[in-house]
């Protein structure tokens, strides 16, 4: 699949994330481009994300988007959004595209999980879902999944 990030100069916020999800999950889920209104499960683990509440999502997004390091901001948002399962479907893809929007608008490269790292990524992501411990996965992402890094971050 190929996706294009339009309006890269517009600020990233919940509405922007919803538009990404609308494109990613179009005709693939119960609803697309809106926060989910029901429970979901994540296969392979015990963790069950709570139903997202819009004002709480906005508050947490604002906290994350104020992280000074662009790379840490993008990766933290990506992981938080994946774990939160904000949408009915397409959460990983929406989160990766969102992280790339944050990185690209600041010239910090892109995040991509290469096939050779997919197994380790999935294991670390499953552990992250269960523990909410960013340290186990964020360094892996930084070291193996970001390309075109500007080291001035």
Oligomeric status: single chain
Distance N to C terminus: 29 Å
Helical content band: 40-55%
Instruction: Report the radius of gyration as a whole number of Å.
Output: 15 Å
Q: What are its keywords?
A:
about 150 residues, Fic-like fold, two-stranded antiparallel sheet, 2 strands
What does this structure look like?
The chain is mainly alpha-helical and 153 residues long. It contains six helices and two strands, in the order ααααβααβ. A two-stranded antiparallel ribbon has the order 1-2. It is globular and about 35 Å long. 26% of the residues are buried. The mean pLDDT is 91.
Structure summarized in a few sentences:
The protein has 153 residues and is mainly α.
Please specify the SSE layout and strand pairing.
Blueprint: H1 14-24, H2 54-65, H3 70-84, H4 91-105, E1 110-111, H5 118-131, H6 135-144, E2 146-147
Antiparallel strand pairs: 1-2
Helix pairs in contact: 1-4, 3-4, 5-6
């Amino acid at each position: 699949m190929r996706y294009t990030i339009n309006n890269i100069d517009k600020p990233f916020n919940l509405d922007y994330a919803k538009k990404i999800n609308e494109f990613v999950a179009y005709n693939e889920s119960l609803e697309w481009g809106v926060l989910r209104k029901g429970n979901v499960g994540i296969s392979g683990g015990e963790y069950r994300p709570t139903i997202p509440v819009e004002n709480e999502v906005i508050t947490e997004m604002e906290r994350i988007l104020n992280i000074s390091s662009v790379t840490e901001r993008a990766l933290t948002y990506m992981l938080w959004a994946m774990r939160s399962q904000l949408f009915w479907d397409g959460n990983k893809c929406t989160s990766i595209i969102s992280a790339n929007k944050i990185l690209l608008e600041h010239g910090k490269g892109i995040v991509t999980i290469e096939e050779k790292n997919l197994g380790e990524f999935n294991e670390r992501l499953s552990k992250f879902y269960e523990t909410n411990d960013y340290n186990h996965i964020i360094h892996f992402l930084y070291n193996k999944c970001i390309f075109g890094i500007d080291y001035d971050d």
